[in-house]
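Supplementary notes for students who missed Thursday's class. We covered one full example, reproduced here. Read the sequence, then the structure, then the short commentary at the end.
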Amino acid sequence: LTRFVIASEPETAKEILNSSEFADRPIKESAYELLFNRAMGLHPSVITGGTSEGFPQPIFSAREEFPTSEDSAKKLVMNCWEYSTGETILPSKVVGFTRSKEKVQESVGKEMIFRGTDTVAILLEWTLARMVVHPDIQAKAQAEIDSVVGVNRQVADSDLPNLPYLQAILKETLRVHPPGPLLSWARLSIHDTHVGPHFVPAGTTAMVNMYAITHDEKIWSNPNEFKPERFMEEDVPIMGSDLRLAPFGAGRRVCPGKAMGMATAQLWLAQMLQNFRWVPTENGVDLTECLNLSMEMKSSLVCKAVPRISA
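Structure (token representation):
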């Protein structure tokens, strides 16, 4: 039985994320197995297998490798030798251990992809979808880029602070379609504590429902409307100090790559809008959401990129 508490208010969310009582995280399968229940010194072969036996290769290149029968046989023999204690070793036990190592590699690989690239890619897909659906907003952003950068060079990262409307578009996308609405917010209470008037025992998993916060009518006017101008009227920080919109978390467990993630998304979006006009296909754009590891588009974005002709 797992005890849960879910926060859907900014004040409660801030209390959880900034509290030293919720300093831990529920350990995930990938970390649990890779670190051998956090005692990684007792099982160096798992660390070696998890980091060097091939999973970085398929992740970061298009080439896929499949072990030969000879390689598989060698692995089984080495595992038998390594774990031999004088007792009879059942083949199923060795095969099971080998498969568990492969499962660890897959889990860690998925974790690396999700944390490192997937959220930025999903954010840009949602943003481009909104640009296709709202051509007036797209044109306004392109006019801002042309005014600041001109037409004779590509937009650079040094231009980003001078593109407030572009930043407002990304903020509004993060508000309407938060890539990590719930699943990446887990915290674990290490002591008995209180959240507001409620008692929370040690070992309780706490989550923040950021989707509920960003769609709360008490916090945002017309929350279902895509309106970047709301962030031009009020500068809402998104790096964790204001829990009305904190896509990267807050407190000591805040995302360490938040600045790089936002800078990457801003630059890529600016370059795509500077060079192309994004228009729908005959099938239009489906904005239906699908919650998997992150908040994805149920139907992948398909649109046309039309080169822009600068006057």
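Commentary. The domain at 4-307 is CATH 1.10.630.10 (Cytochrome p450). The first strand starts at residue 4 and ends at 7. If anything here is unclear, bring it to office hours.
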